[in-house]
Amino acid sequence: MADIRIEGVSKTYPGGKTPAVDNISLTIRDGEFMVLLGPSGCGKTTLLRMVAGLEYPDAGHISIGDRDVTDLPPRKRGIAMVFQSYAVFPHLTVFQNIAFGLRMQKRPSTEIRGRVEHAAGLLQLEPYLERYPAQLSGGQRQRVAVARAIVMEPAVLLMDEPLSNLDALLRLQFRAELKKLVGEVKTTTVYVTHDQVEALSLGDRIAVMRTGQILQVAGPMQVYDDPATEFVGSFIGNPPMNFLRAASDGASRVMIGSQSLAAPADIPRGEVLVGIRAENIQTSLAPPHAGGLQAQTVVLEPLGSHNLVTATVEGQVVKIVTRTDFVVDPGTPIWLEPEPDKLRWLRAADGKSLDGIID
């Protein structure tokens, strides 16, 4: 078993005024691909480094399997790590780079060759085993770094933004290769990124972090469809989730400026936020038969497979994904009809979801 249990972990760096990691508890299941997602400075890399043993927590405990590893050095934790920089040895061949850790453990040469060739096969590196890193592309060098990690057959694989140094096309290609690889080796994996596309496409679950805390832990589609906070909804998605400020009188409608929108019957009174994804809004030039919000077009952006319309509703900006044949000029009045079952309701005061309070 290689589940990871993080219990009440905190870390404040010397001279820091606020904790880099603030009382975090998280369980990562055996064989799970967990993504730590958040903006720069949110504490995700610090948390990963504490799991690795490269940083020690000020409080709390970390367990891998049935062992408390809080005070153990990295070499005794059964982990392997892939860094943002390739960190391959330029004077060693690809074979020697992948075999480095095994040779440090003084494994038999036949075992080393067999395991290196297996890892190279998984990452499509067999033709390059005798080459040096300078003879490889960036994507190939990153594959060498991953192969060097998995060849150790670690209980836990830790990855710190391993794709961020690759260009967009290589990132797309390598992301698919990495997902296939991790599915084959079935190693418990913790992956740090600030890229929400990577998080959604790779993770079994995503832990969204901000200012040293975890705001939501859930599967990719739950995080996307049902964000626990306004920050989660605005951080994940391109474009991010729209949030309109509205006023509720506790009845079955809310007011957005002078316009009204159907709402759950038990929505609390006061200011609320209405969240809706850009692709969940129907757009037309004529008023719908029932409901809908009138908006003013600000700009239309053709994006190939769809158009992205920016509009305002009572002075509040809304992004809408439309068909390519929906073409409007700036200033044109349009009607927006949000899909009722896709509306998300949050408290305006703290941006937290009202799920559990309303049906």
Could you report the average pLDDT, rounded to the nearest whole number? 92
Biggest pleated-sheet summary: 6 strands, mixed
The radius of gyration is 24 Å
Whole-number total of structural domains: 2
Give the overall shape, derived from the CA principal axes.
elongated
Helix and strand element order = EEEHEEEHHHEHEHEEHHEEEEEEEEEE
CATH topology of the largest domain: Rossmann fold
Taking pLDDT < 50 over at least 5 consecutive residues as the criterion, the unreliable ranges are none
Number of helices: 8
Q: Can you name the CATH architecture of the largest domain?
A: 3-Layer(aba) Sandwich
Helix percentage: 10-25%
Give structural notes.
This protein has eight helices and 20 strands. It has 359 residues and is α+β, with helices and mostly antiparallel strands. It folds into two domains: 4-231, 3-Layer(aba) Sandwich (Rossmann fold), CATH 3.40.50.300; 239-347, Nucleic acid-binding proteins (OB fold (Dihydrolipoamide Acetyltransferase, E2P), Beta Barrel). The chain has a six-stranded mixed beta sheet, sandwiched between helices. A five-stranded antiparallel beta sheet has the order 13-12-11-14-20. A hairpin with a 4-residue loop joins strand 16 (293-302) and strand 17.
